[in-house]
Design a protein that fits this description.
The structure holds three protein chains of three kinds. By secondary structure, chain A is mainly α. Helix content of chain A is 71%, strand content 1%. In chain C, helix 10 packs across helix 20 and helix 18 crosses helix 20. Classes of the chains: A mainly alpha, B mainly alpha, C alpha/beta.
Chain lengths: 300, 338, 459
Amino acid sequence: MWSTLRERGISYLIVGPFAIVLAFPFYWMLVTAFKTNGDLYDLNNVPFTYHPSQAAVGEKLPFRHDHWLPFGFENATTSHVSFIFHNTNYLRWVENTAVVGGLVVAITLLFAVPAGYSLARLSGRWGQSVGVGIFLTYLVPPTLLFLPLSRVISKLGLQDRIWSLVLVYPSFTIPFATWLLMGFFRTIPAELEDAALVDGCSRLKALARVIFPISIPGILTVVIFSFSLCVNEFVYAITFVSGTKQHTISAGVPTDLIRGDVYFWQSLMAATLIPSIPLALLYNSFLDRFIAGFTGGAFR
Amino acid sequence: MAAVAEARPQSRRFRDLLEDRRFLAPALIGPAALFIVLLVGAPLVLAIYLSMTDATAGQLTGKFVWFHNFVDAWHNDNFRRALRNTIVFTLASQAIVLVGAGILAHALVRPFRGRWFLRLLILLPWAAPVAVSTIGFLWIFDSQFSVVNWTLVHDLMPGGGHFYLYRPVNWVLGGIDHLPWVHVGKIQPLNPPQWLGQPTLAMLAIIFVQAWRILPFATVIFIAGLASIPTEVHDAAKVDGATGLRKFWHVTLPLQLPIATVALLFGIVFTATDMTVVYILTSGGPFNSTHMLTTWAYQTGIVSSNLGEGAAISLYLLPVLLVVTVLMLRFARRVEVS
Amino acid sequence: MPENDDGLEELGLSKSLTRRQVLRRTVGGFLVLYGGALPKVAAAGVPKHVHRQYKNTLKIIQWSHFVPAYDVWFDKTYTKRWGDKHDTDVQVDHIALAQLPARAQAEVAAQSGHDIFGHLSPQAGLEDQVINHKEIIQEVTRKVGKVSQVGFKSCYNPRTHKWHGFPENYVPDPIHFRKDLWHQVGLKPSTWDDVRKAAPKLKALGHPVGLGMSNELDSNMLLIALMQCYGAFIQNAHARPSINSKHTVEALKTMRDIYKNGMTNEIFAWTAASNNQGYLSGRLSLAVNAISIIRSAEDANPALAQNTSVAPIPRGPVQRLGLEHVMGVYTIWKFSKQKALAKRFIADLEVNYQGAFKNSKFYNFPAFRGAVHNYTRQLAADPHKGKYKVLDLIARKYTVNLGYPGFSNAAIDEIFNTWLVPQMFAQVAQGKMTPAEAAKAAEHEFKPIFAKWRARGKI
């Protein structure tokens, strides 16, 4: 009993500080999102609680009579959060990001699963070199690649449309996905496939019937990583798509919420939180599944 | 049987083809390779061409100047500082990530109460789009309104208890000052540190933000690696009497090496070639002291319109990363096999 | 196997939830989410013709104006009305200020993009990619009179005789100061010497002056304008670097004194928003910035706005001379297929600049003075008691182009975009160089830049 208690204590002792450091900025973003301008720009105010201040034009204080709320929340305003929904195309940006991410993940899987399998099982010597070659594409920084790519995009008639991103993003998700899948496929013992082949399956059927179900964890990993790469991408999103209705979150937020020398800080904080929490929930639940898949997978 | 086999020769031949490794392997990898060659290879060739011309302002053609741009770039102090910064930034942030993710992954593999929630918190930096979360850090490190400075300098005890965080921090800093070669100074409450305004602090700030956002990603990879160690290995270790630290050193660590190497490699490559964090936090400031090669290439090529030179600068990293990649991949393969 | 099932239980998963079920639910969820979004987003990717089919399409891109109402007026009212009259669908896109150069170059590389590109500074470096905007200048001159000197010297290249942009507007750069605090120290910011004297006193009050020396737009403009007041210039009228002069040394000394006695090292870390925010918090007693500060104060802190005065830049020993804060320049790419329509749009906008002037809350001043009538009456009619009347004086007398006394050119652009002037001032203020050394070092840096662009035939 003591050893498990000690183990548990150690777990909390290690994980706790990490969780605090990693998540603290989000907690603080949450608090800041509801601050009034007068409260936010006052250096004497505690950043973690709300203080009475002169409400600016357009700031509504819906809780001002609820003095029982903690942290002085009766002085909070929801106007800056609602600003992003009413005065910008924020929901459109979220949609665009989701669609681009989803399509790119699908394309990535389509190309990378066969490629990863081929490199893991079928390719022998030259497979290693091709694998390394694919990886080398990461060494080229996108900071200047976007110029020649602009020419390609416009020639294809995709300028200013989100399809340009759907076309270009797989160029950095496919190499990564191929690598990950190659690693996963390698960990699957060849005996399983051979057993299927001996049973009379063709190789492709073996791939579909035997390997694919077992590598679901690997595929889920690729889905998460590819999706997160797409959501995070910034340079292409800003330069290839200029219409505000076609922006992704990474492009739309700096464009509409930073105007010259005026930063809409509260709205910026809210704009960061809104996609992060569902995405973190999504990733977390995927994590459960694929660890379960690992521990209870091919080794059952 | 022979009759049946002969009756369907064509389909059998096709099926044979699909079975043939020599056909199947390239067929499966072909589409991916083609995609990459078209969308990365071709622009790369163009970038190499541009780096040897005097192209300006978005033009994709120019007069040939051979290696003039590369030489010019090298003679610029800012370039050399950017090169140094890139190395420091990459190594420092990835070291933090490696150690942090390794420890965290181990602690997260065993179940305990509240693990799901703590894991959620840990995943947040990776879930947030980096462009917007970095803008959040702009405000966290703001020159006047930084919450870090506020917490350091103000009385944290509710009810006027006079607990100032900068006092214990200064005590630690004073201790560090006693070490040779290191001079850190103290936090002055009336003039708190400028996280994005002093060159050293700015470097620390970007290293921190980069490590912050990559840590969850690396942790997930490590967890996957740990979870993929088959139970037989754990059982065998138990039988052999290896537990705790011994087990970690002799069993877990070696098994994790291939995946740790790959995670480190990806981390290095992503950090060395990505400009978002630096661009948003400092734009290379204060006064060009935190430029990385990527942001300096952007500054030269796009903002100052010297496209040829910008292309040359961004290509400088290529041979270095190439060597690093090949070495690390060979290392990973070697430890995997053993 | 028992351990694995226990493991699943521990993870909170019941045995009955197989991987297949999970997969099915996930895919189902995806389909539901995206099945709804996809068609909508796909449709949004295509330019919409909402009410009627227009014969032409005109695409414009410009920055997100700091007055959101300006963008609303421009996008939804002005361009729609103009478009109806000319049977054109006018599409306006916006982009963050910092991304303008990247997008411009991407469009050049792609040889396709927007017909009208709205920059916030003259883009001499893009000269080869744009048309000669002479015709628009001539048409507007015919209708409302000559272009101002600021506009002329910002967008015309005397070496190639080309108008590389159309100067649409410029933003005068006043100073904002706290009447009450300056009254307390018994001074007024009329000359830079007054500022130097008042700085330590104001700092002692807890309300320092806010003059940035950082890599951002406000610092850049402020410091170059300060130099001008001292008779120091980056280049002379013949586009030769002239930074190494005793005037520059004087200006450097002044700024060093103001910093040492009156400010803290936060000013080296400022962003363009920092002086706004510092002033709005009530802390700073002086800021050099366009009227975005006082307009924000009117909304957020009317008491502060009441205590704020707007005035021209302080006088130096040689003169009182400031810069435009930003200059709105419209350019038409050579590859545009709607050149005639684009020229018409720009000309019409400039000739009737009244709407833009008012809807930008007097932020945008037209580069053609005659495009707006009765500045004084309009500025005086602003509900804030004539505070803005001084803007007209500043715009007329105390605003010159970047690169004065010469023309704006690619070398000036490069020096501006790489923050070389704030860097020079910061090094002196931080004690890393003496003023004389810094001026010399700056000349050493500027000369190759000028030589490079001269060799390319642009200067």
